[in-house]
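Re: weekly structure request thread

Next one in the queue (144 aa):
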Amino acid sequence: MVDTQIRHPLGTRAFDAAGGEYIYLQGVASTAIGSWASFDEDHVTILLTTNAVGRVGVAMAAIVASSYGWYQIYGKNTVALGVSGADVADEPVYTTGTAGSIDDHTGGDASGEMVIGAIIRVAESSNVCTMELNYPFCINAAID
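Done, posted below.
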C-alpha cells in the first residue's frame, strides 16, 4: 500500500502475522516493489547502491518520491530485487551499482558492501529473491 499523504509518523513499526517487521518511511524516486533502500535516523531513504551506509529495508510497494509506505526490515521477504538473474540460495548479499538491487557475487570478490543481516534463502527467479531479513544494514567497510 502506498500513501500519497503521510498516514503514520515516519519510523512507525508494524508487524504481520508471520512476525515480519516493517517501518513506515517516505519513498524516493524510481522505487519499485522489492527495491532495497537505506535510511537514516531521520528516516530519509535513498535507493541502495555501492558505498551505502545505514539501515536497510525492502520496499513493499512502488513507494516513489512524495509518497509513503512500508519497508520490510525483519522476517521472510519474497519480493526483494536481485540484479544478476542467477543469485543462489543461502548466500550473503552485497550492494551493487544498480540502485535498489543486491547481488550475491557468487564465484568472485564482491565489488559492493555486504548487506549485514540479509541472506538469500530461495534462489533468484526473474530478478526476485526470497530473503531472510534480520534488521539489515551497511557500513561501507571491508569485512574479512
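The longest strand covers residues 68-81. The chain has one domain: 2-138.
Next request, please.
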